[in-house]
Amino acid sequence: MNYTPITSLAIFFGICILLFFVFRPKKGIYFFLKSMYHQKDKTIIEDILKYLYHNQTSNNSISTIDLTNTLNFPNTIIIESLKKMMDNELIILEHDSYKLTSNGNEYALQIIRAHRLWEKYLSEKTGFHKTEWHERAERKEHELSPTDINNLSSLLGNPKFDPHGDPIPTKKGKIVSKRGVHLSSVKENTVAKIIHIEDEPDIIYKQILAENIHLYSIVRVVENNSTRVVFHSEGEQFVLAPIVAGNITVSVLEKSDLEEDNIARLSSLKMGETAKIIGLSKESRGESRRRLLDLGFVRGATVGIDLLNPLGDPKAYLIKGTAIALRKDQAAKILINKISHGK
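User: That's the sequence. What structure does it adopt?
Assistant: Structure tokens below.
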């Protein structure tokens, strides 16, 4: 086929333009695909490091089979990643069990730091529901650079714990040792404070959320046996299966503060009753917390029910002469002392 000079020139320029878009530095298709491949490779390595760290702190031995059965990546890619990690001295293999090196341990802690700081950010600065925090942090942790992580920590006031009560590693890799005991092991008639709610596995975490159990609440265990754990907290009774209670960590208190016996949630207030607000639960965070304070739900304010909703939710509460409608989950984060009871 014969081409005219103009046609040949057009084809030449067309090929040049195509090559430009494919190989354009940093922005071309080739570099984009290469970056995507590198990011996926980085994600797999960081997930392996995090998994090994959590199991190593629990004294669990982890083999290749454990990793391929647990991580949601093709087996061949996991094995290739393990080889790269050994070549880069992030892990070693001892008796068919992988161990983190000091470099690997340091790297893992920075990934955990990124994850927990991002969960803290989501809880304090956004409106995302707590059921979304973990999954979003799982993705974001691989995108944050060391500078991003340090800036995020500064923005949040360098917090020591994430919204589940897990300690956040410092920039230098220091981490507070885990405290407390599982709620499932607490004896009857013991008073304790919830200091951590484990967010994995997801199915158990969602059961805890459905019960509306709050971090840092004071609990009094009234029954604990092989079939159930029963405790009172903030004027309500909770009944959990032992396996669910095992995902809640508490700090046992030496003696009960008598005032705690009178604490209730605003959601338990009935028509005709009045109460004094003693504060907001630490479950109330960020913008929603500021909004409640701006509406007058501050310590010492008197509150009652102004209007009941026939459907049950929301209710209108009367505070400082103004009727404010709140859903049950919002009212449950406002703590009160009842001062008069309806008939």
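Residues 305 and 317 are 4 Å apart (CA to CA).
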